[in-house]
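Second attempt. The first submission of Probable nitronate monooxygenase had a stray character pasted in from the spreadsheet, which I only caught after the job came back as garbage. Lesson logged: always re-copy from the clean sequence file. Corrected sequence (324 aa) follows.
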Amino acid sequence: MLPQLNIGNLKVKIPIIQGGMAVRVSTAKLAAAVANEGGAGVIAGTGLSVQALQEEIRKARELTSGIIGVNVLFAASQFAQLVRAAMKERVDFIVSGAGFSRDIFAWGKEMNVPVLSMVSSARVAKLAEKMGAAAVIVEGKEAGGHLGTDRSVFDLLKEVVGSVKIPVIAAGGIMDGYDIKKALDYGADGVQMATRFVASTECEASDKFKDLYLNSRPEDSVLIDSPVGLPGRALRNQLTERLAAEKKLPLENCDSCLKKCSHAFCILDALEKAVDGDVENGLVFSGEYFHKIKEILPVSQIMKQLIAEYEEAQGDNPRITLAQ
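This time the job returned cleanly.
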């Protein structure tokens, strides 16, 4: 059986946190479906207005009595407003990445909401613990979206596990129950999975968005230079090919969605186009091992499959030690 993930007073029956994918990929419907299966669902707040995020949280609460969190990109210009609004809605936890906020820990303490920090080194993990993080999410280069490292998640786990006393959650390239078993054997207390849940019936991204996952080849996982100032892992399409060739694309308008932006292209516009179905001119973020996904399934079936794979792996493989 999969062990329970304990984060402060939160008890996640199945130690799987569904990743918060913006814009409008991780919505209330997906988060609630994962929470209903015993995992922790996450709504992506980045790219939403404060009112829209509040509505998503309330919708999720109507759909589940399970654990619901919110992810907000530190680089977003409305970071503080979105995080504080989510906390006021009494979400169960907040996840923040693509930069490091010190203020978020004070807000979490003030409103009694656990903060989970995305980290890519033991140094940042220890800083997050010192500042008051309830857990750290160790994200490797295999992840989709913005990346803070070029190292594998399993390499990072060797460094981070044991350096902090708070729970450690593995993220990046975790696609099946065998990956979950490996992450737990490396000392992780749980995993975060994003890409696997895009290919679910409850994910509200367009069918064309999901189909690109199913129809792309392994070599179509590419890195782009994001206007955020970090590399981003996405699926190859006309947009990524243009970025590779031209480096900078013309901006039609700018609503200053980021605190700092290179203006190489409008990432908000690109993400919105993709989720609405324009998968050639939009940006389709994806983890490196998307090609392991063979079909779109209901979340309930995905979770059952993950548990069955973990149990099969548990029976077949000896426990890995960090010395290996």
